[in-house]
Design a protein that fits this description.
By secondary structure, the protein is of the alpha+beta class. It is built from seven helices and 17 strands. The site of magnesium ion (MG) has 4 residues, from strand 5.
Length: 333
Amino acid sequence: MENTVNIKDYLLKEQQAGQDIDANLISLIEDVSAACKEIHTAINHGALYGVLGSAESENIQGETQKKLDVMSNEMFIRHTEKSGTLAGMASEEEEDVYSIPPQYKKGPYLMYFDPLDGSSNIDVNITVGSIFSIVRCPEGVTDPKLADYLIPGTEQICAGFCLYGPSTLMIITTGNGVQGFTLDPGSNEFKLTHKNMMIPEDTAEFAVNMSNQRFWEKPVQRYVQECIDGVTGARDKNFNMRWVASMVGEVYRILTRGGIFMYPFDTKDPAKAGKLRLMYEANPMSFIVEQAGGLSSTGRERIMELKPKEIHQRVPVILGSTNEVKRVDSYHQ
Ligand code: AHM
Ligand code: MG
């Protein structure tokens, strides 16, 4: 294989080039990628490993957990808690923030993660992924409590996701562009295959769950209707639509060929401002999308500037190709 740069080599090069990446961060990202390799193996073996189906438990959001949700969460924790790089972590699958057990050394970072995103796709063998976001633990805090985790997305120093699809890919940003690494089954290493991924400014492809249409606000109704009207409507061009039901799959497609992804505000459940969670879904994906030249917004505000109120907070998400996100924002004004 011609390109043999793995994640560690890439990060060391960035460090030498003057990027603010310390040894703790490199070690943490390596531990996350080790967890993702283990999750990849479990997903890959599927029914052979008996990992499909429900765990017959619920998470804090009242969602039924899949066996793989629970296993992936354990794998993330097991691979990272002893690294000495984390002061604490928060997971979609954990009600409270997760304190580093007292027998392990603590480090300077906090990590938020969704160990298995798109888990409704597991049993039907469609792409799923893991998402993570890393920030610095507030100065002087050694035993972070919930309030210490409520840090806006603009403070992220690293975000990434692993996509378990036809190939397994790790997408990472440390604030200097977006790089994609493909898991090489021969060496079991992630190799740099997609350098400086950039999202085209324009697109003719949108992704939204159309079954929620009647619950959307007027600006989103208008935008989607104009896409559907195609050359016969205000946009004067035809649009294509995709819905993978796995945000990692949608964001990867957008990084590859552009597009707009929306899980907008809806009135389906008045208790929820949107479906996706700010800290471990919307923020990391927004950081990646912005680093690839795209935009990410709630329709009214830049997602990364939101001041978090709780760890499992939900937000509307509209992200992707710049000119389309700007258009949806303008319809909200
Ligand atoms: P999850 O974290 O419980 O898997 O939910 C998040 C997922 C996203 O990946 C995806 O965009 C969305 O939920 C799909 O929702 P829906 O089933 O309503 O289409
Ligand atoms: Mg999720």
